[in-house]
Amino acid sequence: MTSTPSSLANQRILVTGGSGFLGRAVLKTLCERGCHDVVAPRSYEYDLVEGARVKRLLRDSRPDVVIHLAARVGGIGANLANPGTFFYENAMMGIQLMEQARLAGVQKFVTVGTVCAYPKFTPVPFSEDDLWNGYPEETNAPYGLAKRMLLVQGQAYRLQYGFNAIHLLPVNLYGPGDNFDPATSHVIPALITRFVEAKESGQEKVVNWGDGTPTREFLYVDDAAEALVLATERYDDPAPVNLGTGREISMSTLATTIARLVGYEGEILWDTSRPNGQPRRRLDTSRARDRFGFEAKLGLESGLKCTVEWYVQQRRAGVRSIA
After folding, report:
1. Measured between alpha carbons, how far is 320 from 79 in angstroms, rounded to an integer?
2. Cα separation of 244 and 18, whole Å?
3. Complete DSSP assignment for 245-300
4. Computed from CA positions of residues 131, 133, 135, 139, in that sequence, does the dihedral angle turn out positive or negative?
5. Contact assessment for residue 201 and residue 146, using Cβ atoms and an 8 Å cutoff
6. Neighbours of 197 (CB within 10 A)
7. Where in the sequence numbering do the catalytic residues fall?
8. In the prediction, which pLDDT does 320 show?
C-alpha cells in the first residue's frame, strides 16, 4: 500500500466503526497517509442509534471529514434472524449521523454501503446504474435497503445543501482479523472455521448451506481500505461507486479451495434445504478505476491463504472465539 502524503493529512477525520474489521484497516491506511488527527470512538461511548449521542459525537469530535463504517452486519443466518434490527439500526445510524454532520459543517461525508443493496436479479456484472432496477435478495433485503436509503439521503443533501456526500458499494470483504463468530460471520470465515474444526476433529464430511452454485466476489480488506481512502481523497460526485475485483467464484469452488488450503480431505456436501442467497455477484469496477484510480491488488487465493494462516495461528494461541 502507498505511503504517499495524503491531501487528508491536515484534516480531522472521524471514522465510525473504527474498531471493526474494515475500520482497523482504514485507520492503518490513514496513518500510512500521514493522517494523525483521526477520531475513532467505540460504540459504547457513542451509540449511533441514539440521536442525542450522535449530536454529542459531532460536538465532541468536530471533524472535517466523516467516514461512516459502523453497521450491524452478519451472514445469511444473522440477516434472517434479525431483519428488523438490521434495517432499523443501519438506517438510524446513517441517517442521523449524516444530518448532524451537515449541521456541524462537515466538509465531506463518506458512506460505505453494501453490495446487498443491488436487486436480486441484477445483470452481471453489476453496474451502479442498475441499483434501482428491482428489489434486493430477500434474505438480506432489509439491510440492503437501509443502506440504499443513505444513498438517497446523500444525493438529496448534495442537491439541497451542497453537502459533499459520496457513496461506496463494496463487495464481500475478507482477510485476517475478520469476524469468525459462527453466529454472525460471513461465508469465508464461516467456511474456514468449519473446515479447520472438521480437520481437527477428524470429521469425514462437512455440510454447507445451499447447493454450491451461487457466485460471489470478494475483496481483501486491505484493498478495500485503500479504495475507501482513495475515494475520500479524490472522489466528489453523487453517483455511487462499486468497490471490488471484478472476478467471481462459485460457492462450491470457494469451499473446495478453502478445504485444500486448510488441509481438509473429507467430503464436502450441500444442504439444499438452506437458502442460496443471491444467484450471482460480480461487479463492474470501471468507475472506481476511472474516477479515483482504484484496482484491487491481492488475488483471492493469496488472500485466502493469508486468512487461513492467521486464523490457525489464533487458534493455536488459544483464541477460541475470534470476532
Report:
1. 24
2. 21
3. -S--EEHHHHHHHHHHHHT--SEEEEETTS---SS---B--HHHHHHH-----S-H
4. negative
5. no
6. 15
7. 143
8. 55
Q: Is residue 181 over pLDDT 60?
A: yes
Instruction: Determine contact, residues 91/38, Cβ cutoff 8 Å.
Output: no
How far does the chain reach from its first CA to its final CA, in angstroms?
A: 25
13-178+217-247+280-297 homologous superfamily = NAD(P)-binding Rossmann-like Domain (3.40.50.720)
pLDDT band at 222 (very low <50, low <70, confident <90, very high): very high
- State residue 70's pLDDT score: 95
Pick the closest to residue 246 from 273, 276, 203, 285 (CA basis). 285
Three-state secondary structure call for residue 241: strand
- Reported as a single tens digit per residue, the pLDDT across 36-59 is 999 999 888 999 999 999 999 999
Other CB atoms within 10 Å distance of the CB of residue 133: 12
User: Pairing state of beta strands 249-250 and 215-216?
Assistant: antiparallel
Q: What angle do CA 54, 58, 61 make, to 5 degrees?
A: 130
Q: What DSSP state is assigned to residue 8? A: T
pLDDT digits (tens, 9 = 90+) for 261-287: 999 999 999 999 998 888 889 999 999
Please give the distance of CA 210 from its chain centroid, rounded to a whole number.
Answer: 22
497517509: which residue's cell?
33
Contact present, 191 and 209 (Cβ < 8 Å):
no
Whether 3 shows a pLDDT value over 50: the answer reads: no
Question: Which of these, 283, 277, 213, 280, lies nearest to 247 by C-alpha position?
Answer: 283
Give SS3 for 52. Answer: helix
26 in Cβ contact with 18 (< 8 Å): yes
Q: How confident is the model at residue 77 (pLDDT cuts 50, 70, 90)?
A: confident
Per-domain residue ranges for the chain? Answer: 13-178+217-247+280-297
In 19-150, at which residue ranges do the beta strands (DSSP E only) sit? 38-39, 65-68, 108-112
Strands (E), the chain: 13-16, 38-39, 65-68, 108-112, 165-170, 172-174, 205-209, 215-216, 218-220, 241-243, 249-250, 267-271
